[in-house]
Design brief:
- The structure is a single chain.
- By secondary structure, the protein is mainly beta.
- The chain has one domain.
- The chain has two helices and ten strands.
- The chain has helices at about 55-60, 65-70; strands at about 5, 15, 20, 25-30, 40-45, 85, 95, 100, 105-110, 120.
- It has a three-stranded mixed beta sheet with strand order 1-9-10, with no helix packed on it.
- About 35% of the residues are buried.
Length: about 130
């Protein structure tokens, strides 16, 4: 499975150490129907904005928590939960048939993001390069 480094500190799935606690993540083209040609045109559709520290902020994403990985806490440096990645960005050189990802690791960025369009898969590399 592909390692995921998440630098989206405002997502309900974000854990300190840049760990993604989602069970699965979806990487999409930022504009539906338009193929991405750079990392800024990708997004993590799994992003769910954390607005505070109350339990109600987490309810909207609770169905996608990596419970098996969470039981293994506390996390050591470099430990990953390894969410399942679905990627529909077939213009990326790491995209594989069935909407998978063949990269050893991906990085999702979006410091202080308010919505999924503020996030990017910085591992994206155009297949034509």
């Amino acid at each position: 499975m592909t390692d995921v480094k998440c630098i989206v500190n405002t997502c309900t799935h974000y854990l300190p150490g840049d760990i993604c606690a989602a069970n699965s993540i979806d990487i999409l083209n930022e504009i539906p129907g338009k193929m991405s040609r750079n990392k800024e045109q990708t997004e993590c559709k799994t992003f769910h904005h954390r607005k505070g520290i109350g339990i109600t902020d987490y309810l909207g994403s609770i169905d996608n928590v990596n419970w098996d990985g969470a039981v293994a806490a506390p996390f050591k440096d470099g430990q990953q939960l390894k969410p399942k990645i679905t990627c529909v960005v077939d213009s990326c050189k790491y995209w594989v048939e069935g909407d998978g990802c063949d990269a050893d690791a991906i990085e999702v960025t979006g410091q202080n993001a308010d919505e999924c369009q503020d996030t990017n898969c910085t591992t994206y590399e155009d297949i034509d390069l």
